[in-house]
Amino acid sequence: MSSTSALGRLGRPASAFRRSAAASAVVLALPLAAPAQDLTLAYADLPPVVVTAARLEQPLADALPSTVVIERDEIERHAAPDLASLLRMLTSADVAQAGPLGAQTSVFLRGGDSRQTLVLVDGLPINRADFGTPSLQHLPIAQIERIEMVRGNVSSLYGAQAVGGVIQVFTRRATAPQASVELGSRGGRAASVAAGLRLGDRATPTELHASLSTRRTDGYSAKDPDTSPGANPDDDGARQHGASLHVAQTWAEGHRTRLGLMAARTRSAFDAFTPGLDDELTTRLGAWSLDSQHRLASGLALTLDLGAVHERFVDPTGPVNFGAERGRNRVQRAAAQLQWQAAAGHTLQFGLETQRERFGDSNTATRTRRNNAQRLAWIARPDGAPWTAQLALRHDDNDSYGRETTGLLALAWQLAPRWRLSGQVSTAFSAPSLIDEQFADPAARLEAERSRSGELALQWTEGANWVRAAWFVQRQRDRVAFDSAPPFFARNIARASNHGIELLAQATIGPGRLGAEATFQDPRDDTADRRLLRRSRSSAALRWTQDTAGWEWGAALRHVGERDDFDPASFTIARNRARTTADLTLGRQVAPGWRLGVKVENLGDSERPDVLGYHANPRGVFVSLNWDGAR
Question: Which of these, 22, 43, 386, 566, is most buried using a 10 Å CB contact count?
Fold first, then answer.
């Protein structure tokens, strides 16, 4: 089995598989008969513009890789306590969370490992160098303005770890005074304030955006004493504070510089391996980014980026649980991109990037590695032509695991005004973690894990209503795994594969708004001839919102099929049963700018866990009051 965090790397077409996919395709095709009205994941008035799918601004409908957007209005409407809960309810991605707020969290896209999901915050990666997994649990939900999720391999755009896809988080950019308070079950309480200010003249403005937030919960016992040895049955509470600041200056037309700062502190109780021990982890996550955009000539633009992410943790009981008492992770990045519109509808990009990773803890010496990359891309959407294309090539040179060259080719053909057929082939690589390298055979250097991917998709679009059905396939080789006998060295010896169908839909139907996702897949560990752990063969997310007599109400239904997991009681692979949950929301504007909201989470009080041996969120009721000075 490959080596990563206990949650991150532990973690599959039969006739039933095909029948389920076909049935869902019929259901998701229903919006085709609806009248064309505007609707996106955020139910905005206009179709959103995305940047993650091609590293340039483009309408969501033009993005060739599978892309969805979650805006701030949607985040507030669903009142999720953290990013994991939001992704679990609004997408069909596999999300595994080992307890309440602040608990270790993994997201699996397209069947890839959790460390093969690249998470960016304002363009900076927050995947830790030691295990390679992203620290999603330490991003306060109140500090998030927007989320773009790209599913499928985009390693030729972003390098290592983007095998399963990319989740990019953009921090708050409030343009007017805003405030919110929340009270709820299990001692839940939260508050946030945000504001924005624009100074100067219209041509050269100075923009300021700031946000502060706090959240606290008394929690529940992370581990289940009935199924997990060593569980401490006390409640595991958490406190999380966050802040962000953005300053942007337009110097002249086509010349703009932005400075961004983000900081978060999470103190969360958890259950480790020693019965009766009160374990508590304090993590500080911080990031700064500086980007400057300059138009050099007509159709020619230069973008410069600098930034760093710092993560520090303190775990006083770590040594008792065979871990470290404290540690520090740091990622520094610098990049330059030259973008040239060579002809109408044809854009060329040339990029240079350098990244330095550094990790150390109280048990091991500090380790570092550096990666330099060059990137070329061509994005074509000629006016009046029935085709679009995206080509990307990237070369990475790492002083630890060597050189890798990856590529992506995506083509789309407009079959009819509303119908588009697209195909995509790509290669990718995933970097071995520093933990993998620490336990590698001294006589053989670990290499990167390599993969190949393909996708064929059919998309229907009318206004902001759209339905997309995609078939995808992926093959991985040279996966890092440990020897089955002493000395248990880490080596490039494993293989994995996945194939499946992904269905997405967003539409207005009568008085309501529908969003739907479903994934049917077969992620397998080919070396061990079994399912990859913590990845379901089927998952779906449905959400509906509607305005009735001044009240806005919504329902979200989430289903995740059975999946294999590691049983902490028997130390064997066991089956984790399917889980279905529902959330209800109700909101009303009670005065100009003031909105009252109520949410019921896990309406049926499902006790089936995300992770074997751990409790899932029990039913809870939460009441919020929001004020927006712009309304």
Answer: 566
Whole-angstrom Cα distance, residue 244 to residue 143?
Answer: 7
Check residue 614 and report its DSSP letter.
B
CA distance 444 to 451: 21
pLDDT digits (tens, 9 = 90+) for 285-304: 999 999 999 999 999 999 99
CA distance linking residue 219 with residue 232, whole number of Å:
13
DSSP 249-309: EEEETTEEEEEEEEEEEEEEEE--SSTT--EEEEEEEEEEEEEEEEEEETTEEEEEEEEEE
Placement of tokens 């979200």 in the chain? 556
* 47, pLDDT greater than 70: no
| pTM above threshold 0.85 | yes
Residue count (the chain): 631
**How far is the C-alpha of 93 from the C-alpha of 20, rounded, in Å?**
17
Spatial CA neighbour of 183 closest among 620, 619, 552, 544:
620
Residues paired with 259 in a beta bridge: 247, 290
Alpha carbon distance 345, 415 (integer Å): 19
pLDDT at 329 over 60: yes
The C-alpha atoms of residue 103 and residue 611 are separated, in whole angstroms, by 12
Q: Is 30 buried (19+), middle (13-18) or exposed (0-12) by CB count in 10 A?
A: middle
Query: Would you say 138 and 311 are in contact if contact means Cβ atoms under 8 Å apart?
Result: yes
CB 67 within 8 A of CB 502: no
Structure tokens at 554: 């919504």
Instruction: Give the pLDDT confidence of 397-407 residue by residue, as tens digits.
Output: 999 889 999 99
Joined together, the tokens standing for residue 135 give 């620290």
Distance CA 149, CA 556 (A): 19
* Tally of CB atoms within 10 A around 99: 27
User: Strand 144-151's sheet: what is its strand order?
Assistant: 66-71, 144-151, 165-171, 117-121, 124-125
Say how far apart CA 536 and CA 440 lie, in whole Å: 30
- What pLDDT is stored for residue 276 in this prediction? 72
**Cβ contact 122:171 at 8 Å:** yes
